[in-house]
Amino acid sequence: MREKPLTDTTAEKVIQINGLYKSFGNYHVLRGVDLDLYRGENLVVLGKSGTGKSVLIKIIIGLLTPDAGKVEVLGNVVDEITYKELLALRLQVGFSFQNSALYDSMTVRENLEFPLVRNRKTLTKGEVNKLVEETLDAVGLLQTINQMPSELSGGQRKRIGIARTLILQPEIMLYDEPTAGLDPITCLEINKLINEVQERYKTSSIVITHDLTCAKEVGNRVAMLLDGKFERQGTFEEVFNTNDERVKPFYDYNFIK
Amino acid sequence: MEIKETSTVPEPEERKPSALGRMFITLYNVYSFIARFFKEAFLPPYEGKELLRQCYEIGYRSALLISTTGFITGVVFTKQSRPSLSEFGATSWLPSLVGIALLRTLAPLLTGLIAAGKVGSSIGAELGSMRVTEQIDAMEVSATNPFKFLVSTRVLAATITIPILTFYTAMVGMLGALLNVSMFESTSARAFFQSSLEQITFLDFTASTIKAILFGFTIGIVGCYQGYNSSKGTEGVGKAANSAVVIAMFLIFIEEVISVQFFGLFRT
Asked: What's the CATH fold of domain A10-92+172-194+202-257?
């Protein structure tokens, strides 16, 4: 496993979150979340199921609205901008869904073309084809171009999902459980892909996961969501060098202590 | 490692609305959904290609079922009406009776009900499934307006296609009636159609068109509302499809009653 360089905390903050609250009924998920994402880093967000990790990135992309707090993405306060501005912002933020969310009535090619033809209207048919093929090649799945999503394996679907977000060449990538439900070999391939995306497309990313191997392999920095807040942030070793009973089981389970 | 200070904003307390409150919330949500449809459907950019695709899906795929039902209705209605008319020696009125009945009520109602079952359930299930599998969210995050792409096109397609299907049903129903008439009488096809059409007024035609447009809009908007707002899980998809059919059929009957009363005012 390769060592990831530490985050350059003097770099520009591409996402700034302050005092974020979100509840669903009487279930208070986020209780004063503060978090920054620096340009060029991969930030891994860890936490138990139901602690609001996915909720957090859905708020960042504007799919959910916060109850209180401020989320600033690339200089835009997400719940203060117009819908048109939000759509423009989303072109710069890619979101990879836990279950890939591929359009099941379209082929792989059409899945990748869909965001492109709608948002890059000046592109010719030839340029669209070239971009689709290049992006599929970047995730190593050019051969699946004419297949339907139902014909793909879980790992392939994840890769195509990532390719679909990459085709718009976003500055920020949000990965929701990229290795969930995959076998260890495919998990390693996905981790490698996340690192390749960071290097090739110069993205800044938030990776939501339970998988500590993924966290260690792709994260420049790790933040742990505990009781609705990020109580522990730092390098992988800093976060897990603790006797906190809320944190230790994560490490012990993943690395079979 | 950073240890962050926690914020002191009080945690919100949830109060559940009463049944009446929930009803008003639902009505407000439906109103907002319809208002958003008009905004998204008529303001650019337009989704012409998807609209055409949806018109094809709704129209072409329903045509066979509607042809069969319309034809059988024409045959059966004529057969059932004959004994009553023959008691008064008025079987020559059959063509005009069938023509009026089909155009005024049977064709719009039959087409509406069949489309509510076939098209409404399909829209509800498709959008429900897309919601559950986060495909609608995926569209949203790829800077595409899913409401415009999915809802506006389907509602418009249903509103355009159902009136066309209605007149197609009326035509096929007339052919069924002609078959039955020609089995018992020596009426020619030309005389049959001439006799049935001469009693049909411009008001009948207009009323039927308006009703069909209303039915189409109802089927589209109910199917889309149920699917687009379906809850999580496969149960939610089933519920969306079922509600889309039941609610659309119920509303079609209500609209039929109201439109009969309304257009009756002009028939004095």
From this structure: Rossmann fold (3.40.50)
